[in-house]
């Protein structure tokens, strides 16, 4: 059975902790992936990092509609369920020079959105739920999402890209929509 976990809201200091790599993908880690997936879906999110439920491990889940084909060919690394990713120990091994602004939000800063500029595609090396090494190139919204979630594992929030004034304002406003 999967469990919906409570999500931490900024400025909770646990959101600022740097998460540690997973040593072994065992049943406990797989269970955590399932709980993160259940929580993300229950909260209508497109991504969720373990840091956001107070577990400092380098694990995230993502559920962004994928660009399944490029020039009629399936993108390398896609599996039978291309929208849903279970990602352990992610590492960005390549990032495009092209930058793009994406309007980002976060379950830990509920109800608040702001544009963040990031590379428009990134290649990520990670372990999947079965503990197998994978490399996937993420584009567009998937690229923004995976970078946003990896930032969480380093204790960073999307509001850190904004001015201090704007950041403080969004944190204050998020308190009012706090679950
Ligand atoms: Ni977030």
List keywords for this structure.
179 residues; alpha+beta; Peptide Deformylase; 5-stranded antiparallel β-sheet; two-stranded antiparallel sheet; 24% helix; globular; binds nickel (II) ion
List the helices and strands and how they pair.
Blueprint: H1 27-42, E1 47-49, E2 59-63, E3 69-70, E4 73-74, E5 84-95, E6 99-104, E7 114-119, E8 121-127, E9 133-139, H2 140-153, H3 164-176
Antiparallel strand pairs: 1-2, 2-5, 3-4, 5-8, 6-7, 8-9
Bound molecules: nickel (II) ion (NI).
Nickel (II) ion (NI) binds at residues 106-108, 148, 152.
Instruction: List the helices and strands in order.
Output: HEEEEEEEEEHH
Which CATH architecture is right?
Alpha-Beta Complex
If helices are DSSP runs of H or I spanning 4 or more residues, what is the number of helices? 3
Total number of strands: 9
What strand line-up does the widest sheet have? 1-2-5-8-9
Please report the first level of CATH classification, the CATH class: Alpha Beta
Residue-averaged pLDDT, rounded? 90
First-residue to last-residue Cα separation? 24 Å
The helix fraction, in percent, is 10-25%
Structural description of this entry:
The chain has 179 residues and is an alpha+beta fold. It has one domain (13-178): Peptide deformylase (Peptide Deformylase). It is 24% helix and 28% strand. The chain has three helices and nine strands. The strands form three sheets. A five-stranded antiparallel β-sheet has the order 1-2-5-8-9, with helices on both faces. The radius of gyration is 16 Å and the shape is globular. The model is unreliable at 75-80 (pLDDT under 50). The protein binds nickel (II) ion. The site of nickel (II) ion has 5 residues, from α2.
